[in-house]
UniProtKB/TrEMBL annotation:
A molecular-function term among this protein's GO annotations: dioxygenase activity
GO cellular component assignments: membrane
Aspartyl/asparaginy/proline hydroxylase domain mapped to chain residues: 81-228
Domain of life: Bacteria
Matches recorded under PANTHER family: ASPARTATE BETA-HYDROXYLASE DOMAIN CONTAINING 2 (PTHR46332:SF5), ASPARTATE BETA-HYDROXYLASE DOMAIN-CONTAINING PROTEIN 2 (PTHR46332)
Name the UniProt record assigns to this protein: Aspartyl/asparaginy/proline hydroxylase domain-containing protein
Organism per entry: Sphingobium yanoikuyae (Sphingomonas yanoikuyae)
Family listed: Belongs to the aspartyl/asparaginyl beta-hydroxylase family.
UniProt xrefs under SUPFAM superfamilies: Clavaminate synthase-like
Transmembrane segments: none
Length: 280
């Protein structure tokens, strides 16, 4: 008697839905979707780069840095000034901020390590109130192919963000500095400084860290965009996969589908395990 994998059936169903929408010609999307089953297409992790084993788009050029010319630029100095003014206002409104100080370290015994953020987008969902309150920043963000998140980020003086990877090769990260700063970012051990209005565009699946050894905060607008090599059809497909994903199997981006999720023939097709799929 043949056993059918719940996971494999769901992946096949999603792929059929993409094909029905005229997206079956996208080889990288096919590779991404079916790699969820075994993770065999994903390169091995290295000290300079860590990847989700079961969420990986094959065939995309890795960083560590990307060409900022691949991004839409600021319209003018006036647009940057408007974003800077909105950010200054935002950082004064403590009730709007998210405190991430537990994720950073102080560089000196007397340092009050701190990392305050205000989100415009979180887990692929736009936050309407923030976008309404800060329209110039919102308008700038909406010109880009936003992916996971967008936020104002203020890193306190004498504070560091330790080396880490975001593990997803299909999104990239942008830092738009809102002021000149003596802080620096290191991506795969390649260091760049912060100059107001000069974007830093990088592959955040590479190990990256931030060092602010100065006496002033490092203020940036941080946002994730889809990898610059992904076509609009590929981006639409990745979004559709998220929408079509069922709640019928347990899934983790590092370990894949929960073992033992098998059913025999169609007799047990109504047996559903209600768990959330985890996506980055």
């Amino acid at each position: 008697m043949m056993a059918y994998s719940v996971a494999e059936e769901m992946i096949q169903t999603i792929w059929s839905s993409l094909c029905d929408r005229g997206l079956g010609h996208l080889d990288r999307v096919h590779g991404y979707l079916f790699n969820m089953l075994d993770g065999r297409a994903t390169p091995e992790n290295r000290p300079e780069r860590e990847l989700f084993r079961h969420l990986y788009v094959p065939g995309l050029k890795p960083g560590p840095y990307f060409d900022s010319d691949d991004l839409l630029q600021l319209d003018s100095a006036a647009e940057l000034a408007a974003i800077q003014e909105e950010a200054r206002s935002a950082f004064l409104q403590q009730a709007l901020l998210t405190d991430h100080s537990d994720l950073v370290i102080g560089n000196a015994p007397a340092a009050q390590a701190g990392w305050n953020c205000l989100y415009f987008r979180k887990e692929f969902v736009d936050l309407d109130e923030t976008n309404r309150l800060f329209p110039a920043t919102s308008a700038y963000l909406r010109r880009h192919r936003l992916a996971t998140e967008a936020l104002y980020s203020r890193l306190a003086p004498q504070t560091s963000i330790e080396p880490h990877s975001d593990c997803a090769n299909y999104v990239a990260t942008v830092h738009l500095p809102l002021a000149d700063s003596l802080a620096s970012i290191s991506v795969a051990n390649e260091v760049k400084g912060y100059s107001a209005g000069k974007v830093i565009f990088f592959d955040s699946s590479f190990t990256h860290s931030v060092e602010n050894a100065s006496a002033y905060p490092r203020d940036i607008l941080l946002f994730n965009v889809w990898h610059p090599q992904l076509s609009d059809d590929e981006v639409a497909s990745l979004k559709l996969i998220r929408q079509l994903w069922g709640r019928s199997v347990a899934f983790d981006p590092d370990t894949g589908f929960s073992p033992g999720l098998l059913r025999e023939n169609e007799a047990n097709s109504d047996n559903v395990i209600e768990t959330n799929a985890a996506f980055k």
